[in-house]
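Data card: per-record layout.
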Amino acid sequence: MSALQWLNEQFSFFGIPVYWSDFFGNLLALATVWLALRRSLVAWPVQILGSVLLLIASLNVHLGGNAARQVVIIASASWGWATWRRSRQQEGTINVRWASWQERAALIGVMAVGTFGFAALLKATDASFYPGAPWWMVLADAWIFVGSILAMYTQARRYVEFWFVWLAVDLVGVPLAIHSELYFSGIVYGIFFIMVLVGIRDWASHSKGQEIASPLEPAVVLEGRNDTTSTSA
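The structure for this 233-residue chain is written out next.
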């Protein structure tokens, strides 16, 4: 049996059938989130390897949008890795910040247009779920793809909003994964939800001083709030 065939085999995880590719890919995805919490450069290569495994799992259950998502994540992670390396070389650490209101508006616009546009493409090509799948399923698959791209972009740009985008992806990802019988992915998405809440608090506390602060508090100039915490390699 080849490695690819083995990865597409299922095993029982506490009575739940789980693909090996889905299992190991999601373990690495969890490791990626934990490393991102620490603002570690290692998060990027771990994410690339996990996405390769999740690509295999998605193709195995015919999730076109989710498969395309993994391809984009692999490419985006390479860019994000280079961006963080350059940031640490220039600033001595990985500084994070809140996006400006203009940047937030642009993200929301891309979120809406991108999701509906990609859903239309998936629907026209019958690349999501099965031919004639209802629009709500295709839109969910499309959002997982578009939301992941935005999450990768905002993570590479070191915006605290990165965590809010992942939160929105998780809210759709849990029922979508369970519906697609990727049960372990559904469990992991649930764990992600908790980790994302922790991530929002952590990155917000380390956000670099700026005039545009948290959307949850008045815009003020934050003086003397430099991140002195060392970043893992």
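Known properties of this structure: Strands lie at 10-13, 16-19. The chain has eight helices and two strands.

See the next section for split statistics.
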